[in-house]
From TrEMBL:
Keyword Transferase: yes
Keywords: Nucleotidyltransferase, Transferase
Species this protein is from: Halomonas campaniensis
Protein name: Mannose-1-phosphate guanylyltransferase
Nucleotidyl transferase domain mapped to chain residues: 2-144
Pfam families: NTP_transferase (PF00483)
Bilayer-spanning residue ranges: none
Superkingdom as given in the UniProt entry: Bacteria
Length: 219
């Protein structure tokens, strides 16, 4: 299985830290955030990784290179302007191939990744869901019996980690578009499974949350 790390965002919520450093290279526990992702992917047996880049792209490419230093092979998908989640994935599909792949948002911290075989049957996605953080108290989706829904009153938050079948993006036009509407349609069609993750997970979206994560890891 291959993996894709989404790393093309502008990092606006992280300013001023991202004025001169792209968000994936911000340090956490002594190394860039994205390096933790690469190391976890290698540990789970994934060695082919696609990374999309746009803002300060060359800075990220220069820092990570071919991926040899981290035991993986990196394929770079360059975006002249950010294509959002869906558009970024779509542009990278020729590098990802026709099999399901692991998708990781570059700005989350998570101590574990889903089993590579969690996506089964005719499903188009398998989502990792977590307890709602304070900044996203209403959550995103419900989860019952391993199936994701939009009807439950009890909601969980999408962790930014999933297994995706390329068919989820079939027939989408080229250009910038979000992934979320496609996931919601697939959920309504009962083609999305999920799991609840109870370990350490952080949406590293602001300087304050980055500092809190650093403090938690140090302790």
């Amino acid at each position: 299985m291959k993996a894709m790390i989404l790393a093309a965002g502008l990092g606006k919520r992280m300013r001023p830290l991202t004025d001169h450093c792209p968000k994936p290279l911000l340090p956490v526990a002594g190394k860039p955030l994205i390096v933790h992702h690469l190391e976890r992917l290698r540990q789970t047996g994934i060695h082919e990784v696609v990374i999309n880049v746009s803002y300060r792209a060359e800075q990220i490419i220069d820092a990570l290179g071919s991926g040899d230093a981290y035991g993986v092979r990196i394929h770079w998908s360059r975006e002249a302007v950010p294509l959002e989640t869906g558009g970024g994935i779509q542009q990278a599909l020729p590098m990802l191939g026709e099999a399901p792949f692991l998708l990781v948002n570059g700005d989350v911290w998570c101590e574990a990744l889903p089993d590579q075989h969690a996506l089964q049957g005719n499903d188009l996605a398998h989502l990792v869901l977590v307890e709602n953080p304070s900044h996203h108290a209403n959550g995103d989706f419900g989860l019952v019996g391993g199936r994701v829904n939009q009807t439950n009153t009890e909601r969980l938050t999408y962790a930014g980690i999933s297994l995706i079948h390329p068919a989820l993006l079939a027939e989408q036009p080229q250009g910038a578009f979000a992934l979320a509407p496609l996931l919601r349609t697939a959920i309504d069609n009962q083609r999305v499974s999920g799991e609840r993750y109870a370990g350490l997970w952080v949406d590293v979206g602001t300087p304050e949350r980055l500092a809190a994560l650093e403090s938690q890891l140090q302790s």
